[in-house]
Amino acid sequence: MSNDFHAVTVPQVVTRYMTRYSVLSNLIHYAYRGSQCNSLNIFIDLYCIYRTLYSREYRTQVNDYRDYTVCILDLCAHYRSFFKYLGVDTTFFLISAHNIPKHNLSIIPNYNKVFSDKLMNTSVNNMISINTDLLDLLCPYLPNIHFLKTEFESSSLMNEIIKRENIKNPKIENLIISSDEYPMQLCSLYDNVTYLYPVKFMGEDRSRIICNKTHSDHQKTFWSIILQKMNRTSPLELLGEISTSNLMLLMSLNRFTARNLTPAILNITTAVKSIVNFIGYSDLRLTPETIFSNGSWNISDDQKLVVSNRFKCLDLLYQDLYFQESLEPKTLHYENLEDPDTIQLINDQYFADNPIDILRL
Q1: Is the peptide bond before 263 cis (omega within 30 degrees of 0)?
Q2: Positive or negative, the Cα torsion across 186, 187, 193, 199?
Q3: Residue extents of the structural domains in the chain
Q4: 24, 75 in Cβ contact below 8 A?
Q5: Paired residues of 197 in beta bridges
Q6: Which is the CATH superfamily of the domain at 2-360?
């Protein structure tokens, strides 16, 4: 009985990431007020879905090994339909990653160990593997839906795509759909990145949004989600004293439980005050080396090294140095192959019992 109580199906997990239109409408109109945007790149962070499917708190019930592919494409259709109603064209980037980069493991061997341990779940692994192959096969033939995998943090690949897309169209807007804190830093790196945090609780949709960097409520929306993720009751004004550009420095000084970077070196109040005392409110991105070179710190040299190593794993600009040295940016490629006959053939071969509604896409 207890095992069945915690059983969840793939559709139940993925549906949690479909923010209800009534809630989504309020969030989008709030975040994009006054915007003339008619073209939007939407990044769906599949790691957040993996994290639940591999969870030890639930037993993922796999009724049909193709459910995952169908559900992910339904997720795209859900958001595409919403923005189509607003007159906005959408391009989807489905980012698949386990967020356990080899370089990070070489610095911190237990980096994201909770998730690496979950990967021992053979049945879920097999299901995900089959579906990533299906998405790889199918997505090139779907209109502006790209499925991409990375061995780095999903945010590193998002960052690379955003840079490329910004060059192609400087007026493009980007929306990241994720429940992971790591990608939030992209909102502080670019003026045209918004972050949707889908949350369902007891049947209620409590989804939140981080407005882009130019929005007057960027700071407020950014730090309120961070506080929620940290389960903190600290006043928002405390975090509002520092720029969002220094999120990962703050997390390195404190802790980043989403990647098992614990315990805290400094409590959150002391960590914030340390940054404020050094630079006040400024968008200037600080590094541990910079702040440790000035003033006295009541932490040991070993703790300073821990902070520095955490920062190297968390800071996206630092991670980008290693990403650029890899083969991934050199081989990164995505395109649309318009071939309705091939789509129908794949649909008939793999999804005869549960066909994908191509028209919705």
Answers
A1: yes
A2: positive
A3: 2-360
A4: no
A5: 208
A6: 5'-nuclease (3.40.50.1010)
Summarize pLDDT for 291-319 with one digit per residue, the tens: 998 777 889 999 999 999 999 999 999 99
Q: How far apart are CA 47 and CA 54, in angstroms?
A: 10
- Choose among 53, 63, 151: nearest CA to 101: 151
Distance between CA atoms of 310 and 332, rounded to whole angstroms?
27
Q: Classify strands 145-149 and 89-96 as parallel, antiparallel or unpaired.
A: parallel
As a dihedral over the C-alpha atoms of residue 344, residue 349, residue 352, residue 354, rounded to 10 degrees, the angle is -80
pLDDT in tens, 214-265: 999 999 999 999 988 877 656 667 777 899 999 999 999 999 999 999 999 9
Helix H or strand E segment including 233 = none
Alpha helices in the chain (DSSP H): 2-5, 10-15, 21-31, 46-53, 67-85, 102-107, 113-118, 122-138, 154-168, 186-189, 218-230, 236-239, 247-253, 268-279, 288-292, 301-314, 316-325, 328-331, 340-350
Q: How far is Cα 32 from Cα 168, in angstroms, rounded to an integer?
A: 21
Residues 162/193, Cβ–Cβ less than 8 Å? yes
According to DSSP, the β-strands at 204-205 and 200-201 are antiparallel
CA 199 to chain centre: 14
Q: What is the DSSP string of 27-59?
A: HHHHHTTT----EEEEEEEHHHHHHHHT-SSSE
Chain centre distance of CA 157: 11
Tokens of 309: 């190593």
For residue 359, pLDDT beyond 60: no
**pTM for the predicted model, two decimal places:** 0.94
pLDDT(2) > 70: no
Which pair of structure tokens corresponds to residue 81? 């339909």
In whole angstroms, what is the distance from residue 237 CA to residue 329 CA? 39
Distance CA 218, CA 237 (A): 13
